[in-house]
From TrEMBL:
<keyword id="KW-1003">Cell membrane</keyword>
<dbReference type="Pfam" id="PF02687">
    <property type="entry name" value="FtsX"/>
</dbReference>
<keyword id="KW-1133">Transmembrane helix</keyword>
<dbReference type="InterPro" id="IPR003838">
    <property type="entry name" value="ABC3_permease_C"/>
</dbReference>
<keyword id="KW-0472">Membrane</keyword>
<feature type="transmembrane region" description="Helical">
    <location>
        <begin position="382"/>
        <end position="403"/>
    </location>
</feature>
<feature type="transmembrane region" description="Helical">
    <location>
        <begin position="21"/>
        <end position="41"/>
    </location>
</feature>
<keyword id="KW-0812">Transmembrane</keyword>
<dbReference type="InterPro" id="IPR025857">
    <property type="entry name" value="MacB_PCD"/>
</dbReference>
<comment type="similarity">
    <text>Belongs to the ABC-4 integral membrane protein family.</text>
</comment>
<feature type="transmembrane region" description="Helical">
    <location>
        <begin position="287"/>
        <end position="312"/>
    </location>
</feature>
<dbReference type="InterPro" id="IPR050250">
    <property type="entry name" value="Macrolide_Exporter_MacB"/>
</dbReference>
<feature type="transmembrane region" description="Helical">
    <location>
        <begin position="341"/>
        <end position="362"/>
    </location>
</feature>
<dbReference type="Pfam" id="PF12704">
    <property type="entry name" value="MacB_PCD"/>
</dbReference>
<feature type="domain" description="ABC3 transporter permease C-terminal">
    <location>
        <begin position="291"/>
        <end position="413"/>
    </location>
</feature>
<feature type="domain" description="MacB-like periplasmic core">
    <location>
        <begin position="21"/>
        <end position="246"/>
    </location>
</feature>
<protein>
    <submittedName>
        <fullName>ABC transporter permease</fullName>
    </submittedName>
</protein>
């Protein structure tokens, strides 16, 4: 039940020495401020790093052929082999947990370059032969036209989707590339779309300088037959590609007569594994933020507890009178605890408000900048963090007032009345 007299007494007790109260409250304010700022900074770093994945299907792996490092069934060590288009269907049939198995061919290999000609303009770009699913594994924004589809695959159309960087290099500023032709190693492809990728993985500019053509027309135009350079494999939701990787390797080894224990014959990059490591890092950073913030907050709580002990000492005579007039120990204890909780919550809320203002200012500055290639983006805290902070405040207030309250009720009325 609300008691105006009790709250007047709390306000009077805390304002009796303004300077001491403000200094005491600052410890809690600073602790909550540090906690919220650390959590927001960690979230901002996480957002920036996740932006670097560019919306990629993180539950994916990439796989390519290498040389066999062991002899097997009469076949020598060091032999080379190629994936084939039939391997793709075998993986889909035998591992139903796979969502996409996208074969891919590439001119020039990783970081390779090929002469692409359009009129009098030339450029060096990576050219990929892909299936339509690749856009769901490496998301991109189609800025004009469309991406390749299965009609292009089935009819082996010589069409191409080019990046904005390719468009800038080969076309005039106001020129529309849709419907025009480019020559890749002397083979003409009609441009049907342009794209732009997002990401800050250090290759953002290079990602706009790639050309995608249908896998079948690529194989036909550049005499690749049924061979596959490498594959992008994505697992379904609820399944981990890391757990399925062993089955994938086993099937490929069996189909290409590779020793079951030859782990060097198939190269792979497990994006999900790397993504999990990054997630683990941010969990650790969040734990460190809570640890440091709570320690700083604890120092403020100790300060409040010490001040409340001094307040109890100063009010010994008053407590003795109240006890003599019939005040119960619970009444005395409740008064001290309420003063401690009130001071803690007020100072803590001030810390939350101050940290919110700082976060808003940082976001305001970031909104004025191009953050597409930054490793820090939209620092923020969610409602759950605020609730946790308030819970910590209430518990801290109880902890800070508990010892002074227990000390107050141990004072005997006769001894208290004798105190000057």
């Amino acid at each position: 039940m609300f008691s105006r007299d009790r709250w007047d007494e709390i306000i009077e007790a805390l304002t009796a020495n303004w300077f001491r109260t403000i200094l005491t409250a600052f410890g809690v304010l600073w602790g909550i401020f540090i906690l919220v700022i650390l959590l927001a900074a960690g979230k901002g770093l996480e957002n920036g790093v996740m932006q670097g994945f560019g919306g990629m299907a993180t539950n994916s792996m990439f796989m390519w052929t290498q040389t066999a490092s062991r002899p097997y069934k009469g076949l020598p060590k060091g032999r080379r082999y190629n994936f084939e288009i039939n391997d793709v269907q075998a993986l889909k049939d035998q591992i139903p947990e796979l969502r996409f198995v996208s074969p891919r061919n590439q001119l020039g290999g990783f970081g390779g370059a090929n002469n692409v000609v359009r009129g009098l303009n030339t450029g060096a770009f990576n050219v990929y032969g892909d299936y339509p699913e690749i856009i769901q594994q490496e998301p991109m924004d189609i800025t004009t036209g469309r991406f390749i589809n299965y009609s292009d695959i089935d009819q082996k159309r010589k069409v191409a989707v080019i990046g904005e960087g390719v468009k800038t290099a080969l076309y005039e500023y106001s020129e529309n590339p849709i419907g025009t032709y480019i020559k890749v190693n002397g083979v003409s492809f009609m441009v049907i779309g342009t794209y732009k990728k997002k990401g800050n993985n250090g290759n953002a500019e290079e990602n706009q300088k790639q050309i995608y053509v249908p896998f079948t027309s690529f194989s036909q135009a550049f005499n690749r037959g049924n061979t596959v350079g490498w594959m992008a494999i994505t697992a379904k939701d609820g399944s981990s590609i890391t757990n399925l990787k062993g089955n994938v390797m086993e099937i490929i080894k069996s189909r290409h007569t590779i020793h079951p224990e030859d782990d060097r014959a198939i190269g792979n990059f497990d994006l999900y594994e790397e993504y999990s490591k990054v997630n683990g890092l941010f969990v650790a950073l969040k734990a460190v933020a809570y640890f440091v913030g709570v320690l700083v907050l604890l120092s403020g709580i100790i300060g409040i507890s010490n001040i409340m002990l001094i307040v109890v000492k100063e009010r010994t005579n008053e407590i003795g009178i109240r006890r003599a007039l019939g005040a119960t120990p619970w009444s005395i204890r409740g008064q001290i605890l309420m003063e401690s909780i009130f001071l803690t919550i007020v100072s803590g809320m001030a810390g939350i408000i101050l940290s919110t203002c700082v976060i808003w200012l940082v976001n305001f500055q970031l909104n004025q900048m191009d953050t597409s290639e930054m490793m820090f983006l939209n620092p923020s805290v969610n409602l759950g963090v605020v609730i946790v902070a308030l819970t910590i405040l209430i518990l801290s207030g109880l902890l800070a007032g508990l010892i002074p309250a227990q000390h107050a009720i141990k004072v005997k009325p006769v001894d208290a009345l004798r105190t000057e």
